[in-house]
Amino acid sequence: MKNIIIGTAGHIDHGKTTLIKALTGKDTDRLKEEKLRGITTDLGFAYFDLPSGIRAGIIDVPGHEKFIKNMLAGAHGIDIVMLVIAADEGVMPQTKEHVDILSFLDIKAGIIVLTKCDLVEKDWLLIVEEDVRENLKGTFLENAPIVHVSSVTGEGLDILVNTLDELAQKVKERSSEGIFRLPVDRVFSIAGFGTVVTGTLISGKIKVGDKVMIYPKMIESRVRNLQVHERNVECAFAGQRTAINLANVKVEEIERGDVIAPPEAIIPSTMIDVKLSLLKEAKTLKNRERIRFYTGASEVIGRAVLLDRDELHGGESCYAQIYLEDCVSVLRKDKFVIRTYSPMLTIGGGIILDPNPEKHKRFDIEVIETLSNIEKLGDKFVIEKLVYESLLPLSEEEIKRKANVVDIGKFSLKNLIKLKLEEKDYFYHREKYEEMCLRTKEILEDFHRKNPLKEGISKEELKNKLFGDIKSKLCDFIFELMEKEEIIKIKNQLVALKDFKVVLNEEQEKLKERIIKIYRDSKFEPPKLSELEGYPEIIPMVEYLVNIGELVKLDEEIFLSKDNYEEAQNVLINYLKENKEITLAVYRDLLNTSRKYAMAILEYFDSIKLTKRIGDVRVLAREIKN
Asked: What is each CA distance from 89 to 102, 113, 372, 482, in whole angstroms?
């Protein structure tokens, strides 16, 4: 079943609530104050089914100028607006303000409903219609159908329902793909159930049992129960008015304006980049002027930092960075409205370009150009920018979340390299990869120049130089890609340039042979490294001999030649195959060496899991095949 949200808009006392009651049979004025005063002060909710089977949730918003804040909290999820204008009064101040707000929230579909038609003559209705058309020129309602209605007599209600149905069938259904987000517009507690929040699910889908986060407070919770239009459901979808029963959360911990979404879906921010537009009749907005910022169901005080000018005049647009006094929980492409701090007048709005930017310097051409590209080139540019700015490949899910896109497969992303790791798709920017390759070459060239006898730099050291403190399998993934493309080679956790080889000169060859002979001739009582002639200058050569397998390093001071090591190993294995266990003293005698060296050799075998010590004896730690 397709679901849409219909919202009312219009001046106070023009019959919005009465019209909803006539359509649905439900009185959306739920507060005692509202019933006593006869005006709507907060949001009201109802629903009904259209003839085509589409279920329409209805949001009734207050018309009084004092309650515009509440109107804004409900308007963010509207698909179709019913602009309600009383036939006996015509267009009034809040009529215009509501239309301006809806325009900034990018609502594109609507119907104009002339109410109280039973109170005026038909000739007067025609005059009012002309006035309405004139006032709505240039707005999204310029060519909207006009329906004459009397909520008292029922005149025109059937025409209104059919017109709404026709429009509802044309309205694009909200996507249930992507992350679920529900801006909270009501919070209350029900005995026996606990805390309940309501709102319009603006994207994705949510299921009973889902883990959720309450932003910006970063409170973790779980969906205990779900209701859509007063019925229990297992799953709620984008475009539905939804009530969520939250587990382990107190009602006082949540407030209108908070957002329910998956954990790690949103990074709350007090600074956002926007494209800001002012209404034609708005007063001039000065740089750093205090404003009221509205997005989703939240209101936050902030300042507008104009990035390319000192003043923004009515009818103009510019890029701006909004500094906020409290966190907002937004994503790229979210819409917003601004009002003056005092007196509170709607003056503009726009679209969020970057919800988590760095602080910008004003009049920075590069910043302006980037924001222009985000606005004009859209999703493709943002995806590539996100991936380029990341040191490591980004997962497809992370890109979708940060860029606020549902499907990245539809874009021609020729600048990105697609990788697969543990059944997940990752993307890496070609330019970033080329930069990383160039940096790797520079590091390795420098290392080879300074360490000509070393087979390569340790993989961990190279990771630290390239990625800092980042610990991720993706680092190894990049190395594997470089190795596959024959930029580097990796052996024994050492990384070198593909064509690098240790080349010894005549003097180094002589030193190499001398050291090998010393260790070969000393059998199982080798000299300490620090006792060798030429120490410490010979250390690089000893390390080289270890790397090529001519020497085996038992500890920092003791080394064995390859032949002696293999003999020591064979002696041990052969003895243990016949005797099952061996003591230090027996092994010492078998090698005809001292206790110190026998101990060093056995401890090395323990470390490589050849042997296992049990009390005073050692046994084979694994099966040895002949």
From this structure: 21, 13, 43, 73
37 and 144 in a common domain: yes
Six-digit token string for 619: 């046994």
User: 546 and 601: one domain?
Assistant: yes
208, 121: one domain? no
Cβ 541 vs Cβ 511: under 8 Å: yes
Cis peptide before 216 (omega within 30 of 0): yes
Planar angle of CA 217, 221, 227, nearest 5 degrees: 110
The string of DSSP codes covering 301-356 is: EEEEEESS-SEE-TT-EEEEEEEEEEEE---TT-EEEEEESSS--EEEEEEEEESS
Dihedrals phi, psi of 133, to nearest 5 degrees: -60, -40
DSSP string computed for 392-435: S-EEHHHHHHHHT-S-STTS--TTEEEEEETTEEEEEEHHHHHH
Q: Which amino acid is at 45?
A: F
Using alpha carbons only, what angle is made at residue 235 by residues 61 and 107, rounded to the nearest 5 degrees?
35
100 in the same domain as 44: yes
Mean pLDDT of successive 10-residue segments in the chain (626 residues)?
A: 85 77 71 41 75 89 60 80 90 87 90 90 90 93 94 91 94 86 92 90 94 97 93 93 94 94 94 97 96 92 97 97 97 93 92 95 96 92 92 90 84 85 89 95 95 90 90 88 94 92 90 94 94 87 90 94 96 93 95 95 94 93 75
Domain that holds residue 531: 518-620
| Cβ count near 194 (within 10 Å) | 16
Please give the single-letter amino acid code of residue 36.
L
Cβ neighbours, 10 Å, residue 201: 27
**Are 100 and 198 part of one and the same domain?**
no
